[in-house]
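User: Sequence in, structure out. Go.
Assistant: Echoing your sequence, followed by the C-alpha cells.
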Amino acid sequence: MPMKTPKFWTGLSWQAVLLYPFTFLWKFGNYLRQRNAQPEKSTLAVICVGNLTVGGSGKTPVAITLCRFLSGIGKNPCVLTRGFGGNEKGPVFVDTGFHTSSDVGDEPLMMANSISVCVSRNRPKGAAFISTEKHLDCIVMDDGLQNPTLEKNLKIAVFDGKIGIGNGLLLPAGPMREKLNEGITNIDLVIFNGEDETGLSSKIPSHIPIISGELRPDDEVIDQMKGRRVYGFAGIGNPSRFFKTLQHIGAEITGEAHFADHHPYTDNDLAQLYEEANQSGSELVTTQKDWMRLPAEWRERVLTVPVRIHFSPADTIKIVSLLETSFTNVIS
C-alpha cells in the first residue's frame, strides 16, 4: 500500500520513542529470515543495488546506470526486481507493449524502455529464468540487500545524501531495514545520491569505497524546461527532491502536489490537478516514474522530466573497474 515517509523518522521524536519497542520485533523477524535462508547461487554474476533504509534513495537510477556501464564493457545485463506495486509474480520479462504499471510496477516498466527487465517475487527463480536467455550474461538486482535467498557477487548500498539514515532507528520507529553497523559490513561500494549532508560517511568503514553522484536531467531536458510554467506533482519516496530539480533547472513552479510513493493516480486526481494547472496558466509535470502510472489518456497532457545519476569521470572509472573485477571473479 502506498505510504508517505513519516516526518518523525528524521529525528528522535515522541512518536519514535513510542514505537521503539516494536523495533525488536522487526529485528527478530529479520534474524529468523536470515537464519533459515539457504542462498542459491546463480550461474550469472549478481550485482545487487539496494539500501539499508526504506523509501527513495536513488537505487533504481543507479541500477540503470550500472546497466549502461556494463553494456559499455561488452556485457548484456538484465535487471531483476520484485516488481513492487504490480500484480505479476513472475518470473516474466517486462514487455512495454503489453504490460502496465498495475502488472509489473512503475519502476520495472520505466526501466524496460531501455534495458532488459525481469520481474520475479522469487529471486532465485528469476535469476534462473534470466539465465535461460543466452544473450544475457549478468544480473543487476534492483533492491534486495536484505533478501537472503540469492547469493550476490557485488553489493552496492545507495543513500540519499540529504537524508542519510534519518534517526538511525529500525522500523517502525525509523527508516532502517537493518542496523547500520550490521548492514554495512558486507557492502562493496557505497554511493551517495547527492553530497553527504548528514556526516554518514564518517560512520562507514574505511575499507569501503564511497562515491557521490548527482541525480539530474540531461542538458537537452534542462533546455526544454527552462522558463516553462509548470504545476508539479509527484508520488515518490522523496517528492521534495523532484521539486528542487525543477527549481534548479529553471522551471517556473506555480504549484506542487505531493502524493504517497507509488500512488495509483485516478481520473479524479488528474482532473483536479489539470484544473489547478489551468488556473495558474501552467502545464502539468511529473517524474518519469509517476508518468508510468498515469492512465494512457492522460499521458499526452502531462510533461515528464527524466533524470539519471551522473558521476565524475574518475568515479565512473572506479565503478567500471569494480564491475569488471566482480565479473572476472565469477567466471574464473
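User: And one key feature?
Assistant: The domain at 7-215+311-331 is CATH 3.40.50 (Rossmann fold).
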